[in-house]
Design brief:
39% of the residues lie in helices and 19% in strands. With 253 residues, it is an alpha/beta fold. The termini are far apart. The N terminus is likely disordered. It comes from Flavobacterium fragile. Keywords: Hydrolase. GO terms for molecular function: hydrolase activity.
Length: 253
């Protein structure tokens, strides 16, 4: 009887979308992602990849996956750096993130591996979106640049720069950029170059600016001092999430 009771408890936990650790790999590099099952009817089996910020898989990315599951999407937090490689400080984070920004094919490969896991977990391979925060926001755009099989991508306060060695391909995925109007880490020239790239690649793109917002405006642990360049903004956080929800209704219809 106790084993039946335990089985019922586990089944109940899974039905509420708690994160499940998923071990996978890129060659010899072990990866550790987290899956959240859709908690509402999901007839299209739509799935969303969540790309963490530059410190690697964190509470924020996991919370986003849980929130997406509550909306009715299968969600998967991708491990870009790999087990044992999460940075210990911002210096290491900059180095790790910089490697993938300068080697977009490697970034795209790690995103694709996460997509493969999301599909294995129940998502339709033709009903996938990618969202990301900061460094992860850059990754979301790279998924579009690399023409991965995704319906759309959403960048929350992500870097917009394109690696010099990266080819310029026609972009098929729809693109939504959610940007702090006062973000000092994404200069005007980078924004302009990105917008020109979107026009050149004939992308279906949108870009929302949020007033009084700097980098990391969705991260509550970033503090509230805009003068530091990265700070939480509750209104921008809520507005950007609503914009993402509307975008998903469009791409998954």
């Amino acid at each position: 009887m106790k084993y039946l009771y335990l089985t019922l408890i586990l089944a109940t936990m899974n039905s509420f979308g708690q994160l499940v650790k998923v071990d996978y790999a890129d060659g010899n590099q072990k990866l550790e992602g987290f899956f959240a099952k859709a908690q509402k009817a999901n007839p299209k089996k739509a799935g969303v990849i969540v790309l963490p910020a530059w410190m690697g898989v964190d509470a924020h990315s996991k919370e986003s996956a849980e929130a997406l599951a509550k909306l009715g999407y299968h969600a998967f937090v991708a491990d870009i750096y790999g087990v044992g490689n999460n940075p210990k400080n911002t210096g290491e984070a900059g180095k790790n993130a910089g490697y993938y920004k300068n080697n977009p094919a490697e970034y795209q490969k790690r995103i694709q591996l996460a997509i493969d896991q999301l599909v294995k977990a129940g998502a339709d391979k033709n009903q996938i979106a990618v969202i990301g925060y900061c460094f992860g926001g850059t990754g979301a755009i790279e998924a579009a640049r690399g023409n991965l099989n995704v319906k759309g991508v959403v960048s929350f306060h992500g870097g917009l720069g394109k690696a010099a060695n990266s080819p310029t391909n026609e972009i098929k995925a729809k693109v939504l950029v959610l940007h702090g109007a006062d973000d000092p880490y994404v200069p005007a020239k980078e924004v302009e170059a990105f917008q020109n790239e979107m026009r050149e690649t004939k992308a279906d793109w949108q870009m929302n600016y949020y007033a009084n917002s700097v980098h990391a405006f969705t991260h509550k642990d970033a503090g509230s001092d805009n003068s530091k360049g990265a700070a939480y903004n509750e209104l921008a956080d809520k507005r950007s999430w609503e914009a993402m929800k509307t975008f998903f209704l469009e791409i998954f219809r």
